[in-house]
Amino acid sequence: MSIGIIGAGHIGLAVAKTLSRAGIAATIANSRGPSSLAASVAALGPTIEAGTREQAASADIVLIAVNWSKLPAAVAGLPAWGGRIVIDANNPVESPLFKPADLHGLVSSQVVADLVPGARLVKAFNHLRADVLASDPQVDGGRRVLFYSGDDSAAKAEVGALIDRLGFAGIDLGPLAIGGKLAQFPGGPLPNQNLVRIG
After folding, report:
1. Strand partners, 28
2. CB distance 68 to 94 below 8 Å
3. What is the pLDDT of residue 81?
4. C-alpha angle 48/49/55, rounded to 5°?
5. Could you give the number of structural domains in the chain?
6. Which residues contact 56 (CB under 8 A, 6 or more apart)?
7. Burial class (CB in 10 A: 0-12, 13-18, 19+), 14
């Protein structure tokens, strides 16, 4: 199963690091092209390669992690999703001021889902800070918790299996309307909750 990452900021690179640590191959892309990622990719190890946005978006599982205002441009003009899995690792805030976006009463993942029609969307990898996400998930005799949610049970199962392969303890929060809201920053109670499952 191929994995692509669109967005090479703190979260995108943190996920790439967790994949590399587990020996899982992935293609990472940003808006400036593969050559701009040479140094970052070299530091991540041999399983991570830089590619174009289109190459990353052609994977079976595509994680998107970009600044909220850049989301429409990040997915514009890409080929049809055709039922592939998109992991929404975004939060509706603008760095560095962390100004909340006006979602007009929607959960952020509902906004993202509208931008990737035909994809099976799963919300994950957004509730921890990048430095925590990139660190060893085996901690204090247990595994660091990663929350995920989605409306497609098969897609959630695949993302849950990936989370497990990465060494984290996945917890399914249910559908996007519930789980997406719980893990959304700002507004949800779960962001920055660095929990560990023992046993």
Report:
1. 5, 50
2. yes
3. 97
4. 120
5. 1
6. 4, 5, 6, 27, 28, 29, 62
7. buried
Kindly report the CATH number assigned to the domain that includes residue 133.
Answer: 3.40.50.720
Task: Report residue 68 as tokens.
Answer: 């909220």
* Sequence-ordered list of residues with C-beta below 8 angstroms from that of 1, at least 6 positions apart, any chain: 60, 61, 158
Residues 6 or more apart whose Cβ sits within 8 Å of residue 3: 19, 24, 25, 26, 27, 59, 60, 61, 62, 63, 162
Mean pLDDT of 151-158: 98
Residue 114: predicted pLDDT: 95
Q: State which residues form the domain around 108.
A: 3-198
Which of these ranges, 10-14, 53-57, 182-186, has the smallest mean pLDDT?
182-186
Q: Is the pTM of this model over 0.70?
A: yes
Residue range 28-40, pLDDT digits in tens: 999 999 999 999 9
* 183/30 Cα distance (integer angstroms): 25
How far apart are the C-alpha atoms of 199 and 197, rounded to whole Å? 7
Q: Can you tell me which residue has the tokens 């994949």?
A: 19
